[in-house]
Amino acid sequence: MFILALDSLEDLETIIEARPDAIVLGIEPFCARTRAVTDWNQLPALVRRMHEAGIQVYINLLAMIEQSRLQACTEAFGQLAKMGVDGLYVADDGWLEIAYAYNPETLSLLIVQPETLLCSGEDASFFARQGTQAQSLSHELSEAELIACVKTCPSCELLCAGHYSWMESRRGLLSNYLHQIEKPEDFQEGRLYTLREMNRHGRMPVWQDHLGTHVLSDEVFQAGEYLLPLREAGLQRYRIDCLLMGNTWGLDMLKAYRTLLTEGTDALSPKQKEAISSTIWKSSSLIRKEKSHGTR
Length: 296
What we know:
Blueprint: E1 2-5, H1 12-18, E2 22-27, E3 37-38, H2 43-52, E4 56-61, H3 70-83, E5 87-90, H4 94-102, E6 110-112, H5 121-129, E7 134-136, H6 143-152, E8 156-162, E9 165-169, H7 173-180, E10 193-195, E11 204-209, E12 212-216, E13 221-222, H8 227-233, E14 237-241, H9 247-263, H10 270-275, H11 280-292
Parallel strand pairs: 1-2, 1-14, 2-3, 2-4, 4-5, 5-6, 6-7, 7-8, 8-14
Antiparallel strand pairs: 8-13, 9-12, 10-11, 11-12
Helix pairs in contact: 3-4, 5-6
C-alpha cells in the first residue's frame, strides 16, 4: 500500500490518474507539518471524489491536544468519522481516548505517527492491541531493527521518501532567536528559513507557526532498495511525504517505488535509480554520531 502525503491540493486529477492507494491531507486547526490543507466545506466532496477513484483519504491530525481544545478535537473526530474518511494520523495519545469514548470501533481509524518515538515492534504492538490501524516507525532505526519491528507487528508503516521531522518544539525558537540578535523584523510566521549547525554542512528547513517551531531533515529521506528486505519481512504500508518537494516529485517517487517492489531493481530506469538512491541509512548514521557527541 502506497500512501501519498500531499504537498498541496493542486493537480488532484493527476494524482487520481496515478492511483496512489491513499492520500493524506490536513484540516485546520488540527494538522501539523503539512501545506495540503482543506476545510470542512470542501472535505466531503473531496472524500467522495477520491473514493470513486478507489483512493483512500487520510487526515493529518498531528497537532497536540491542548486542554483548551479538547472539546473541539472531540467534535472534529465525530465529524470525520461520520464523513467516512479512511484514517487519521495522530501523534497525541489523547486521540485514542477520544476515539474510544466516541465508539471503540473507531480506534481502527487511527494511524499512530509519533515521529522518532516508535522504536520497537513492542511499541507498535501496544498500539495495535488498542485497535489502531497502523503504527509509523521511527526513521532512525537500522535495517535489522526495522525488520524485527515488522515481523513483530505486521501493521507497521514506514516513511520511504521525503523529509522527516528532525525536531519539534512548541516554543517560538525562531522569533526568540531573531529577537535576541536584535533582528525581530526578520521574523515572519510560516516563512521557510534554513538552519545550519556548526557541525553539519546540510541546511535544514525550519519554520515557526502557531504550533511552534518545526525543523526538517536537511536531506530527503529515501529508503531505496532497502525496502526489498522489508517487504520480504512483511511490510505492507509505504508512505511518501511530498512536503516541500511538491506533488509531482511525489508521483515520480510513487512510480519508482511501485516499479521497485513489483518488478525489481532491474526494471528501474537509470533516472529512477538515481532518484531513490538510499539516504535513509546515511542520514540516520549521521544523526546518531552527532547525538553521541552531545550535538542537538
